[in-house]
Amino acid sequence: MAQIGYVMLGTNDLARAIAFYDSLLSTLGATHLIESEQGVSWTFGPGSTSLSIVKPYDKRMATVGNGVMVAIGVAHPNDVDRVHARALELGARDEGSPGPRGNSGFYARYFRDLDGNKLNVFCVERCKE
Description:
- With 129 residues, the protein is of the alpha+beta class.
- It has a single domain, classed as Roll (2,3-Dihydroxybiphenyl 1,2-Dioxygenase, domain 1).
- It has 2 helices and 9 strands; from the N terminus they run E-H-E-E-E-E-H-E-E-E-E.
């Protein structure tokens, strides 16, 4: 079975981005998977998709992709609120009011990291059960 192995986001300030994501992702139990001069990858456990923050390989400026977003699934709506609040404490910018989306039980909050990359923390309400 195929799966997405990792997602990479670019940064122009690697040290700042690592500090942001270390603090943010530690609230979800993520740990470093790979570390190099180019960037860091975090894992949420065996078999999970990892998230990487990297300096662009071509040495040009990192830019934000229009329409690109990383969505992090969590177990409970309270986790959504907690992670979003932590992101804002770390300097992220809010990208939309919290709450249900549609009638599918999808609960989400959105923010942009320190480089402007868009992220979402979400839970499908049935995961509370």
